[in-house]
Amino acid sequence: MIFYLCTLRIYKKSEGRVFMNFSKVKKTVSILLIAILSLGLLAGCGSKTTDQQSEENKPAEQPAEKEAKLEGSIAIDGSSTVFPITQAVAEEFQKANPGVKITVGVSGSGGGFKKFLVNETDINDASRPIKDKEKKLAEENGIEYVEVKVGVDGLSVLVNPQNDFVDYLTVEELNKIWNKDSKVKTWKDVRPEWPDEEIKLYGPGSDSGTFDYFTEEINGESGNIRPDYTASEDDNVLVTGIAGDKYALGFFGYAYYAENTDKLKAVPIDAGNGPVAPEPATIESGEYSPLSRPLFIYINKKSLEKPQVKAFVEYYLTEGKDLIPQTGYVKMPEAKYEEALEKLGLK
Question: What is the CATH number of the domain that holds 301?
């Protein structure tokens, strides 16, 4: 349009003349055209779209602002009692963090401590507190750790569902059956009115925290137990044994009973105040005595410096703790988990 107006103006100026020098007009038009094109190019170079300006005005994304993806591995071993909790928490954690590989072994509390105290694992599941000799080994090996309570268990005494005569057992009767000097062979040896049938006994092996807790509470000394029973660190083996024998008797963590109520029958225990059956309410209150007990995880302090371990432990004590009732155990009061988070520096 500008070109047209400029040309028209030149033409009108030349209308009053008899002769028009066409070469001059051509030259003038060329100069104007070059000037117009130059101005257009400058305008184009100098202007930016709104989107371009917006993009350039954005602050550069800093690496710290990017969501870090957790990677690496976490090695866990220990108690078969605590295993269902830790395994459930690990599975949910890995769904949100597929880059983290978590292995959860079942060597028993004692077996797990053997690995933990030579730096083979990051976390040890335990159904009993660490022993003095294990503390000494940790010091010798330079292993610093944090003890954290994660839940409560009611160590359960079980019989076969077809057993219709055992209504309860006293602590004294349990001691009579299980101590290393026991003379009990049949149910009749426990109470005269019971059948003259051999008792088939099932229980955890000596590496189990359940073994330690039961023998201490019932027989007065860790390891004090008769040798003629079927022992296994795998509680599922014990479940199968008791479920397959009408006159069997055994003990293990509450969660495995809760999973197998169609195959097993829990025996109420009388500690002097009347028989009490293991169930969430009596376990949490401590009424189920003396077999209510805390459950632990032990965390290597050096491992806690690893981002994936730190995140896992924090998840365990926050969202993960809500999985505990689903595994058959009892949660602690909320304040206890808050205290644990503070102790670990996670709050």
Answer: 3.40.190.10
